[in-house]
Amino acid sequence: MIRYIFAILSVALSLSVSTPLVHAEPPSVAIFDFDIGTTVSSRLKVTVNKSSSNVNFETTRQTNLLTNKLITKLTTSQEVKVVERAKIEALVTEIELSQSEMTNPEHAIRIGHMLGADYMIFGSISMLDPSIHVKQLPYNAGRTKIMSLTAGASVRLVKTETGQVEAAADLQAEKKVREINPEGSLNEMPQTFQDDVFSELADKLASNIINTLVPIKVATHAGNTIYLARAGLSRGSRFEVVKLGEAITHPDDPTKILGHIEETLAIISVTDGLQGMSKAQIDEWISAERSIPKGSICRPIQEE
Fold first, then answer.
1. Which of 93, 127, 256, 291 has a CA between 20 and 30 Å from the CA of residue 40?
2. Nearest to 240 by CA among 202, 208, 209, 284
3. What is the Cα–Cα distance from 291 to 266, expressed in whole angstroms?
């Protein structure tokens, strides 16, 4: 199956980019503090039996929490180099530009060079939907408290060399728990519960950023087993294996690469996430040749 990729795409739940990014060494990234989207509510809806009310829901902590967790995830991955946050904060204070102004190509190029970063990550919390439902249990057995939180974030990956947005993503994470006769206030959502949601969201963001900057590649192929040049992949994760072909260039500017001709070779799933690499099995052959060259790209399949 041959596909033609002509432009940068923005799709939900995965970073998209027109052509795989290639680096001789781990790329460096500067992660700027997340902000709150203008349409995001800062109210927590609390329903006790049939009576509802709204209470204040702290959002400043959420932006710091998500920024810190994403920095930690990317740093510990060792797949990218992360610019120190203190260096970024000092520069932001000095230049006095808003996030939208910093993503302006002219400013982005200058800021990226000042930080020594190959890429800059700008993001915002695009969705917060917290709720608490408290109901009386039958036979005077007490109360049940159901907490739910859905959090979403939008990110943009800006390349310092060009000042252009290389990729974008909009991801979500959610959690819901039910407690019987819980301790503490009925109209409060514990910080540990919120931390779990934002930790999952940071995991998704980090995974997509890493897979965009440092694509997972096939190290070798033996029989039905594929060895992937990425350690610790989750068992059961599924990927589309793609071989890149001839570059597609702009008709008016042959030096500008729009993408590549792609051939999908197979669908694979991870069987073991090892310390130095991961092993996968072939679930379905797409290519009639039934061959997977070394260096083929593996793209995560988003399960519905």
1. 93
2. 284
3. 9
State pLDDT tens for residues 206-230: 988 998 899 999 999 998 999 999 9
Comma-separated ranges of CATH 2.40.10.410 domains in the chain: 216-300
Nearest by Cα to 122 from 173, 70, 78: 70
pTM: 0.80
Structure tokens at 283: 């679930």
Single-letter residue type at 1: M
CATH superfamily of 216-300: FlgT, C-terminal domain (2.40.10.410)
The string of pLDDT tens digits covering residues 16-73 is 444 455 555 889 999 999 998 877 877 888 888 878 888 888 788 889 999 999 999 9
* CA-closest candidate to residue 183, choices 137, 148, 135, 142: 142
3-class SS string, 140-181: HCCEEEEEEEEEEEEEEEEECCCCCEEEEEEEEEEEEEEEEC
Residue with the two structure tokens 């060494």 = 25
